[in-house]
Design a protein that fits this description.
By secondary structure, the protein is an all-alpha fold. It has one domain: Up-down Bundle (Growth Hormone, Chain: A), CATH 1.20.1250. The protein is 77% helix and 1% strand. It is built from 17 helices and 2 strands. It has a two-stranded parallel sheet with strand order 1-2. It is globular. The two termini are 33 Å apart. The relative contact order is 0.16.
Length: 460
């Protein structure tokens, strides 16, 4: 197929080849994933810094509240922005979300107090929730049909870059001599990413598929041309059948009518949330609890945090290979199978980690088991839970379905983050690893059982 700029030759969205404009869309959408995990990583570093300063109010419960404040925002923002986007269009929400995140990040830097931090984290999470409702939808509809699931996965893989970039920048800042009392300085990283997000969306366009669903064909064509090129056309086959009642259906009615799909897209996402956020947010703390940072009594506390962050950085580097492996396996293995096995193998890695910690095996075995957990978690559940909503919900309900799935996922993440320091306080790493392994097993079982049911429904 010819992709030249000839005025007489046109290409179809669904069948065209990838071009630079596609990669610009992917970059724009992936920034939402990057900022989500970057914020979680930074929060996990801010908490021990605040403890060094001497906040007496930082009990295990308060640490959990700080860790999950942005996740509560995501859980609220995902369904709210999903419904708004389905009704009024994607573009306004796509620009509003980074604006909210930027404003909250700047306020958290300028007013460094615990109450303000909690409010700002919630607002930032609220904006990130909107991102999770839209980035998969934009990506799916603008990519060639044969690559849609893979490219949605590529966008999701951006979260690995968020972990690595945030951990790397925080380590550099801590190594440069950041005083623990200046913990709020780390939020400039979030402000910078949010500003970049906003800039990339100034000249973006409305969702073409949303416009088509509303019967605004000419505007949809103009949006496609703006995003992908003047020679790109929308095929009539891409136009969804209009369903006027879809936008007014209540959330509870939607869940009743799509129960199996909501369970498949949401409950395993909640289980995955414990691994990604419950363990991810407190990764520097867990590294210290495992004794991997080789802390000595003479070492200043801030260096202790910096060493834990350094090890966190190395563990986080396995996240990206996990996503790449998942993308390579996605089309061959299938979404349900890949997610199921990812959960089961993550559970097995945590069991090995538990035995290594309990029996005091060599440090390389402990680190290897931890890295294996991150590899399998991101190869399967962390990738597929993001891809599933766009694949199983129809276009007229896509943002709402993705929003509900993200909401359920973040409820699981909130519970995981909130109770993680309590589990650590009550039973140490033994209890943390046992509970985490059980949750991974549950996610695999639900995916396997409900996933095959949904696949059979979609074939009918």
């Amino acid at each position: 197929m010819n992709n030249t700029s000839s005025t007489t030759t046109t290409v179809d969205v669904a069948t065209m080849r990838m071009r630079p404009a596609h990669y610009l869309v992917i970059f724009t959408c992936s920034l939402g994933q990057i900022i989500g995990t970057a914020l979680a990583t930074i929060v996990g570093i801010v908490i021990p810094l605040m403890q060094i300063v001497g906040h007496p109010e930082l009990s295990a419960g308060m640490q959990g509240l700080i860790g999950c404040a942005n996740l509560i925002g995501i859980a609220v923002g995902s369904p709210v922005f999903g419904r708004i986007a389905d009704r009024y269009g994607y573009l306004g929400v796509f620009r509003l979300c980074p604006t909210l995140i930027l404003m909250a990040a700047v306020v958290s830097v300028l007013v460094p107090s615990l109450p303000v931090l909690l409010v700002c984290l919630f607002v930032m999470g609220f904006g990130i929730g909107g991102e999770y409702s839209l980035d998969s939808g934009y990506t799916s509809e603008l990519m060639p049909a044969r690559l849609r699931s893979v490219m949605v996965g590529v966008v999701k893989a951006g979260c690995a870059l968020g972990n690595i970039a945030a951990a790397g920048l925080c380590y550099a800042i801590l190594s440069g001599g950041l005083a623990p009392s200046h913990w709020s300085t780390l939020m400039w990283i979030i402000a910078g990413i949010a500003a970049l997000m906003l800039l990339t969306r100034v000249h973006f366009a409305q969702s073409p598929m949303w416009l088509l669903e509303k019967g605004r064909t000419a505007e949809a064509q103009a949006a496609v041309e703006k995003l992908l090129g003047k020679d790109v056309r929308i095929s009539p086959a891409d136009m969804p059948a209009p369903q006027p009642a879809a936008a007014t259906e209540s959330t509870w009615s939607f869940i009743r009518h799509n129960f199996s799909r909501v369970v498949l897209s949401g409950i395993p996402w909640a289980c995955e949330g414990l691994g990604v956020y419950g363990i991810g947010v407190f990764l520097p703390v867990l590294v210290a609890s495992l004794g991997l940072d080789h802390f000595t009594a003479a070492m200043p506390p801030v260096e202790h945090v910096a060493k834990s962050v350094e090890i966190t950085l190395w563990i986080s580097c396995i996240i990206l290979p996990g996503f790449v492996s998942g993308l390579l396996l996605l089309r061959r293995a299938g979404k349900v199978s890949l997610q199921s096995w990812g959960f089961f193998l993550s559970c097995a890695a945590l069991v090995v980690l538990l035995f290594s910690y309990q029996l005091q095996w060599a440090a390389w075995i402990t680190i290897g088991a931890f890295m294996a957990f991150e590899l399998f978690l991101n190869m399967g559940p962390h990738l597929v839970t993001f891809v599933l909503p766009a694949a199983i919900f129809p276009v007229d309900h896509r943002a709402q379905g993705a929003g509900i799935a993200a909401c359920l996922g973040k409820v699981g993440a909130v519970l995981g983050v909130f109770f993680m320091p309590m589990l650590l306080h009550a039973g140490g790493m033994h209890l943390v690893l046992i509970v985490s392994a059980a949750v991974m097993l549950l996610g695999g079982l639900i995916t396997s059982i409900v996933g095959h049911k949904v696949e059979n429904e979609m074939k009918k």
